[in-house]
Design a protein that fits this description.
This protein is an all-alpha fold. Helices cover 70% and strands 0% of the residues. The protein is built from one helix and no strands. The termini are far apart. The model has no long low-confidence stretch (mean pLDDT 83).
Length: 83
């Protein structure tokens, strides 16, 4: 290994450091990884939206049941009070 005068002991000369620019395969893999991350985030968001939608529907059904029960209770109270 050729040593540069200014290089520290055990360090290669500046001219002997290999080119570290990413090749086309590395760039493609990085691009795919970013797409996968975005897809995963979107999948998680879609699942959360679905869960909230189901929860809202369940609450609406419960509200409807409560309203029916209150109507029945009012009807029975009116019936009792008229006797």
């Amino acid at each position: 290994m050729i040593m540069d005068e200014s290089a520290e002991e055990g360090m290669p000369a500046l001219g002997s450091i290999p080119n570290l620019t990413p090749g086309p395969d590395t760039v493609e893999v990085a691009r795919r990884n970013e797409q996968d991350k975005k897809k995963t985030k979107n999948d998680i968001l879609n699942k959360l939206c679905d869960e909230f939608s189901r929860a809202n529907q369940a609450m609406e059904k419960n509200d409807e049941r409560i309203i029916k029960l209150l109507e029945q209770q009012n009807y029975l109270l009116l019936k009792i009070s008229n006797k």
